[in-house]
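user:
I keep going back and forth on a fold encoding question. Separate attempts, laid side by side, tell us more than any discussion would. Would you put together a sequence-and-structure record for a protein of your own picking? Write it directly below this note and I will take it from there.

assistant:
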Amino acid sequence: MTPSQIPDVIVQARPLTSEGSAILIGFPGSGLVGSIALSYMVEKLGFESIGTMTSKYFPPMAMMSEGVIAVPVRIYEKEKFVAILADIPIHPQICYEVSNAILDWLAPFKVSEVVTLAGIITNEPEKRVFSVATEKSLLDRLSESAIRLPIGSISGIASSILTECKIRGIPGIGLLGETINAPDPRAAAKTVDVLNILYDLQIETAGLIEQAEEIEAQMHRLAEDVQTAEEQPVRKEPQLPMYG
């Protein structure tokens, strides 16, 4: 196979165990809300790894834990749920290809719906969760747990996936956790709370709140260090005379 014949995106995974699964997708974005929330859910519910997704256009990086490499985009399954979890952001120029690769792979399994998890940056201190969907009836299911986004636009891989769902007639939901532009476990916890209500799950989020408190403490210490450094006088080396 020549380089030009290699697919833009390759999904390598075993077939799903059943039809009608709900597909949860979390890629890094604002506040890392989607990836933090979905990673937490996968760990707490004990999802099984079933495959990976790679691309010649993905950035050349891999995460590791205790020295063991993890493929940047991984696929997991647990009963009627499938999780597609990523450690890398998707460049806007390949969002279309990634979205189509995911939905093409899912096509034979007649999934019930696709849910994208992401963040939305606002100027408010609250940690609300907003919702968008491909059909009004899907928003009605979220009326008690998320705020319907009245107008505007979303971008990135989540928007590409939901647009492709709309085109293909696949029910699609987008959950957007209100966040700041920094890792935000609190926003991820609120997003998990919405998933708990939507699917009648029992995922406790105390671990995410503890992470948030640790990050906030680190940010506070960093701010103090920066302030201390700014208050210190700058010491300039004495100018030495030049001879020549």
User: Anything to note?
Assistant: The chain has a mean pLDDT of 89. The helical segments are 33-45, 95-106, 136-141, 156-168, 185-199, 206-231. The domain at 3-228 is CATH 3.40.50.10900 (Rossmann fold).
